[in-house]
Each structure stands twice: as C-alpha cells, then as structure tokens.
C-alpha cells in the first residue's frame, strides 16, 4: 500500500502515467448540503423515479396544512389578525441577520457583487423573465390575492395610497433582503475561497444549504437557525393565507350564487380545501418530490401569472374601458388619478409584459435543477400546467357565449363585453354615488357588507 501511494504521488502507477495537471480536484461538500440532499430529500436520479414518500416530510406537510387551517378558520377575521405578526416578524429577523451579516469577513465582497451591474446580462431574455417573475410573486399581481383582500375593504378606502405603499414597500424589502443574503454569501465565499457566483445556486439550496452553513459558523448558531427558519415559516404562511383565501372566496361566491346560505358552512369549505391541497402535495414529499416542486415553480409560477395579468389589463383597458374604470376609481377616492395611469394600463404595461413573454419564448430553455435537465415529456407536463390557467379563461368565455340567449356570434360577443345589471358597488348608497342603478331587495344598507364578511 505504501508503494502504491508512492507511485501515485510520483505520477506513475506501473506502466501507466497519470496526468496530474488534468486531474479534477475533489469537490468540497458542505455538511448542510449533504444533510439536505441525503438526510432531508434522499433524492432520486430524476423525475422519472419518484421513489417512496418520506414520512418525515409527510408529517411536516400535514402539520403545515393544519396550521394554515386553524389560522384561516374564521376567514379574513382570523387570518387578518395572524398577518399582523407574520408580516412584521420577518422584518425584525432580516434586520438582525443584516447586522450580523455585515460584521462577517467577506460580507463587503458579497454586497458589492449584489449591487454591481452586469450590463451584458440585460441581453438575456431569461434575466428579464426572472425579474418579472420576482415582481409578480412579490406584488401578487396575476394571482388574485390583491383583488380578494381588497374586496373586504370599505368602499371609500384609499386604494390609491395602498397601491403606492405596497409597491414601494415590496421593492424596498426585496432590495434589503438582497443585502442580507449576499452579505452572508460573501462570507461563505471568503470562508470557502470561492467566487461569489460559485458558492451556491438559486432555489431551495439558498435557504437550506447556504444559510444553514453560514449560520453554523456564527456565535450561538441554534438561536440564529431558529430565527431564520421561523422567519421562513411566517413568510410561507403569509403567502399561503392570501392564496388560499382567494381560492376559497371564489368557490364560496360561485356556490352562493346558485345555493344561497353556503357561507354558514365556510369552515367546512376551508377544511375540505385544505385536505384536497394536502393530498395534491403528496408527490412533493416523495424522494423525487424536489423535481416535482421545481417543475411546478418553473412553469406554473413563471408564465401563468404574466399571461393572466396581461389578459386582465387588456380587458380592463379595451373591453371595460379606462374611462369607465377611472369613473369607478373617482367614486371611491373622490378624485381622479393622473392620466399617467391610463397610459400605463393601455400601452406601457401591456407592451412591457408582452415583450418579456415573447422574448422568453424566443430565448426559451428547458427546466433544470442543478445539473439535471428535465426530459421532453416533463416539459410537456410543465406546459400543460401553464396552459390550464389560460384554458380556464378561454373555456369560461366559450361557456358564457353559449349561455347568451340569442343573436349571432358577433352580437353575443358584444353582449358578453358589457357589464351586467348587478355590476357595481355592493351597497345601494354607494351605487347611487357611483351612478349605478340600485339593487332590488336590499333593505338594509349593511346587509351586503355583512354577507361579504
């Protein structure tokens, strides 16, 4: 054995010569990476092999949905109170982690890498698509959550102020979070003697490999780990509340239109919805679940929100009409916003989103996860997920056109683009102010508001 070692060190083994200069150096595997890949995921080789359900992940999946159910069991009244904590606590943790991050060696290099522009990247359509996805996910555009929560506001709520506050706070939060993350990544690069871009890839690895590794090197790592992962939990709950409330509100409103009184059983609707969602999540807690989750994230969370938002803004601008929409806003706010917003709705925003979507298709690349590239049949599944959202709009439009009593296709189309007689504010006192016809059978002005809540 000693002779073998000597031969290898000298560059020879028997009659064969080793080219030391071409030998690949051994890649360092961090403990957090090994635990994530083998202890948590125990991932298979690809999407074709889902393996078995990881019982540990299954328990966490069930616990998460139970937590969501009990937080929103009373609807907006209960989730609204929980959000006061889940929406503010992450800011506290981010600030604490920022203070700790900037005091670590190498943090300045990470922050400079974050804020230093790389202009050549702007030529890539995927960069614009990723930026648009970040905006749509952060702001909730195209997901329906903003519309759902706004429907519970009072009629004269200053939505103009809220829009500006949400937009500015979301943008500032994303930038601040970037400083927090890259200060730690800079420390990891310094500690590992690697380039910033080689430290860790994006996606789950950033939260479950990079940060745990960095936290383990900080004083009192258990405290920092608890704060960080508890922050992730609150962020996840915050997003889930809005998304689930959107779905439940839509389901109840649709059922209530045909079978009034279903709101009395809202808790059961929430329970059934949570159970169905937990069952749909089972493939993601298998050994190959990370591939399923990445596929969902790549397609359904990528193209669908942008396409739906583009359809929405085109319908409001050209079917409903910006003039009529401005009148509605004026009746709520008491003043008419600047014409700048009309230009955005009619031209600037549709053009920007449309160009990003088109060039994303032109510069399209198959879904990947690390070194794994999804096969063509998996891409087909991904595009099917994307199209289901769009097909829902198309199918509903076709059904609506069929239900129009009479007339040619053109006449039916014109009729479908007109607001119904019940369109407008829920309360008659607000309908009169906004110039809409009053609703029959509404004796108590607060009746509609009570029904909504």
In short:
By secondary structure, this protein is mainly alpha-helical.
Order of helices and strands: HEEHHHHHHHHHHHHHHEEHHHH
Give the overall silhouette. Answer: globular
Which structural class is indicated by helix and strand composition? mainly alpha
Strand order of the largest sheet: 1-2
List low-pLDDT spans. 1-23, 445-453
The major sheet is characterized as: 2 strands, antiparallel
The quaternary structure here is: single chain
Bin the strand percentage. under 5%
Number of discrete helical segments? 19
CA gyration radius, whole angstroms: 27 Å
Average pLDDT, all residues: 82
Report the end-to-end length measured between terminal Cα atoms.
78 Å
The number of E-state strands comes to 4
Percent of residues in helices comes to 55-70%
């Amino acid at each position: 054995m000693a002779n073998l070692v000597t031969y290898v060190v000298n560059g020879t083994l028997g009659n064969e010569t080793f080219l030391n200069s071409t030998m690949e150096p051994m890649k360092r595997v961090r403990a957090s990476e090994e635990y994530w890949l083998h202890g948590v995921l125990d991932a298979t080789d690809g999407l074709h092999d889902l393996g078995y359900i990881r019982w540990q992940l299954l328990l966490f999946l069930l616990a998460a949905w139970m937590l969501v159910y009990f937080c929103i069991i009373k609807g907006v009244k209960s989730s609204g109170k929980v959000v006061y904590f889940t929406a503010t606590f992450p800011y506290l943790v981010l600030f604490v982690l920022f203070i700790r991050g900037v005091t670590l060696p190498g943090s300045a290099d990470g922050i400079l890498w974050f804020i230093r522009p790389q202009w050549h990247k702007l030529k890539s359509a995927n960069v614009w698509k990723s930026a648009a996805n970040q905006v749509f996910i952060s702001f909730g555009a195209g997901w329906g959550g903003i519309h759902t929560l706004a429907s519970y506001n009072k009629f004269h709520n200053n939505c103009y102020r809220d829009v500006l506050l949400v937009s500015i706070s979301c943008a500032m939060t994303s930038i601040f979070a970037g400083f927090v993350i890259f200060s730690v990544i800079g420390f990891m690069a310094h500690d590992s003697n690697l380039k910033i871009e080689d430290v860790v890839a994006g996606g789950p690895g950033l939260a479950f490999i990079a940060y745990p590794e960095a936290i383990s090197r900080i004083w009192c790592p258990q405290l920092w780990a608890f704060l960080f992962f508890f922050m992730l939990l609150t962020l996840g709950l915050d997003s889930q509340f809005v998304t689930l409330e959107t779905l439940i509100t839509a389901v109840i409103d649709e059922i209530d239109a045909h079978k009034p009184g279903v709101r009395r059983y809202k808790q059961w609707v929430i329970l059934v919805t949570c159970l169905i969602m937990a069952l749909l999540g089972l493939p993601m807690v298998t050994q190959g679940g990370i591939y399923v989750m990445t596929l969902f994230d790549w397609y359904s969370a990528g193209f669908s929100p942008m396409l739906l938002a583009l359809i929405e803004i085109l319908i409001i601008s050209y079917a409903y009409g910006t003039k009529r929409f401005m009148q509605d806003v004026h009746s709520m706010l008491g003043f008419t916003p600047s014409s700048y917003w009309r230009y955005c709705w009619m031209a600037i925003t549709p053009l920007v989103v449309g160009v990003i979507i088109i060039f994303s298709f032109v510069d399209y690349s198959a879904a990947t996860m690390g070194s794994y590239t999804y096969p063509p049949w998996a891409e087909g599944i991904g595009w099917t997920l994307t199209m289901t959202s769009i097909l829902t709009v198309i199918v509903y439009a076709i059904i609506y056109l069929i239900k129009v009593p009479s007339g040619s296709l053109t006449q039916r189309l014109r009729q479908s683009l007109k607001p119904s007689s019940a369109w407008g504010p829920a309360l008659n006192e607000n309908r009169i102010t906004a110039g809409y016809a009053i609703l029959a059978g509404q004796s108590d002005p607060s009746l509609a508001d009570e029904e909504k809540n």
